[in-house]
Amino acid sequence: MKILVALKRVADPDNANKVKIPPSGDRIDTAGLEWKPNPFDEYALEAALRLTEDGKAPKARAGEVVVVTFGPKETEQTLRAALATGADRAIRVDVTDDKLDGALVARALKALVEREKPDVVLMGKQAVDGDSNQVGQSLAELLDWPMATFAATIQEEQGALLVGREVDGGVAVLRVRLPAVVTVDLRIVAPTSVYSLKTARTHKYNDGVRFAALPAIMASKKKPLAEVKLADLTADSGLKVQYHGFEPPPARKAGIKVKDVADLVARLKNEAKVL
Amino acid sequence: MSNAPNLQQNRYKADLREVRFLLFEQFKLDQILGQGPFEAWGPDEVQMVVDEAYKFSCEVLGPLNAVGDRTGCRLEGGQVYTPPGFKEAWNKLYEAGWMAVSAEPEYGGQGGPFTLHITIQEFMSGANSAFIMYPGLAFGAAEVIQLFGTDAQKEHYLRTMYGGKWGGTMCLTEPQAGSDVGSSRTTAKKLPDGKYAIRGTKIFISGGDHDCAENIVHLVLARVDNAPAGTKGLSLFIVPKVRTNADGSLGEANDVTVGAIEHKMGINGSATCVLNFGENDGCVGELVGTVENQGMSQMFRMMNGARISVGLQGVAVASAAYLNALEYARDRKQGPSINNWKDATAPRVAIVEHPDVRRMLLDMKSRVEGIRALIIKLTRHFDMTRVLQGKDDEQALYHQGQVDLLVPLVKAYGSDQGFRVCETAIQTYGGAGYIKDYPVEQYCRDAKVFSIYEGTNHIQAMDLVGRKLGQRGGANLQGFLGDVAAFVKANEKHPVLGKAVKELGEAQEAVAGTAMRLLGWFQMGKMPMVPLSANRFLEMMSETAVAWLLLDAAKIALDAQEKLPAGDESASERAFYEGKKHTALYYALNVLPHVRLSAEILGREDSSALEISTESFATV
Asked: Per UniProt, which keywords does this protein have (chain A) (predicted)?
């Protein structure tokens, strides 16, 4: 099976308090932030690796995992890290974040998919910076492929994937014919979430994503990493989303003590207007 | 206000910006990458190893730190069991390959810079200083075999030990032979097949037994029949827990038994064992190499690495304590700002706003960053010996000399200050720091042993004064003093740092003068003055070295800061570089002046501690 995994780098979500908005309010200030792969995309990569191996012998890849990201030269580090954890090849589409929106990424990915012809496109359900949750759905629509979003489990079948989707109140199971687009949720990296045809159903993975081992880090330098111009993928680089301004969420106001229940109800009714 | 502590929560963190600064801005690791012995390494690989090893430390080792402390090790049926999770962590560590970064490719390593090995060892030591003892000692034992073993021994032991299949220890101490290694009584009797029957008892053996690896390779110091008394007659032996066959498979047990494990103040996850060799005359060892009575010099080589690792443990745990205290100080609100001290209704502020808390934080920051820089300085010298080997032997000797000179400083100052930083971290928390909901009390207990094992810090001071100062006819010390003097000369007019650099110049002179004084005591037969003053001298030299490296960092930071684009997109970089400046100024103006004072004190030759009679210490 050949899988294309779309990865985005985001400002370290553990340091969200360092994200600043300059007084001009015209952008988000990303200087000095540590960059990390979007966690949901890391889970997508882990799922892709699990789908292309026998869980007992994870060093041998059955099929191919190609990772792609959109970003400047520095984002190659994100790709190298993905290669070190087991991906076979990487593609960087050379562009900066401010020239992108979800629709444009989906258009460019469509062109890449037509070139690469993967059986599956995997990505996180959303990136934790913008939380747009659009690219997977848009891409499936543009390709006219089956789609399963918020995957919590994936089981490979002949020519199809059985995908357990996170829905309100439980997990809904869908069978999608290949080729397909699947976006993954948090629980996809639980020990028994993903099974290729080769992996025994009794196998249990370590919880979470795998670590890059030292020999693999050293070997990752020799794996191919191609650069592609955005213009080579789509002639239409227009943006559908225009940002007009940024402001931080309002600071929390100090609380007050209410006299009694009647006072509380009155305030909820008249001041907060929630009743 | 405290919830029940979650024992499995990772509390470890490191400042990766600081790591990048040290590796690439101050110590310019990239200058030796991509060529010579480090051909396969580029800055990207270094950065990836740093990132991944940090992640590993936080996700695998950190969550076991408090668990290991509370659970400890147990001895059951002659076998030591490590705390829950240690064995799995051991397997993951070796699967990931983190112990083999700088090991020879021939034996399964990646041949990377020692500087990188030490950088990631700091993460692992800080995340779990008890756990790292097991792989750390295995690594050290393997290094000795690599340096002194026969080809057959290297072939047989190195891959398995670097790869984590077998563990390793170093066995020196005996009940009557601690710092006085020469009184070892363990014996080795040559057998007809060229091997030796080993008999004796060793104590305080870290990782002397454990359940992480299928076998443990002990390096045991013992005396062959008719060998001279004292340290000259000691030889080093490879003594496996389980005998091994030529193909690496395991044979029968080798009569190495665990008498007991110690109950300690800290590093409870590390099994400290009493080991009995040959109680039933069935313990067989082989000599390391082929020549008897070389044990001490071989052991010294192992101890060099082990001593660096102990100084590193000090700074690693101290750094974790500092960063945790900082987080707490930024969060915990208590009292109004001193500027509003008369106003009872003034808003409460985070304790980081209080001057004394800021003093403690900056004190911790300067010691942690300064000692870390000293360690990287040392490892960078070591890497240079590898780069220059066979190309410029004279320069290589200079670098090796600096390694030798700095080892006792790193070990002793790193461990002493590490403990003190942990204590300051507790003080920063106040009462919260004293209770087990927060990690700093464990850090403090764990850190105490660092000044004791691998040669107490007084042994380090005597190594510095008795061996290192005179090494190569004093050239190592002259090299060090010359490097500091050159920095002073180049920077004493610096607009921001000049005043502090002058202080450094005076400290350098005080160190040089005191070194001469020590030499004078040797020559004038005032021998007891030497050990009486050695620790203080080591501290003087360490403070001088640390101040030098902090000022060097500040200068680099100020230069880099000037090149930052104006505007607030550089705010966090500017804050980082500003921090470097204040750190250096604080240390140079508040700590470094002790060096001058120490020189003056030693100049008075006060010998009260020698003159007081043993009876006069107390009447009980």
From this structure: Electron transport, Transport
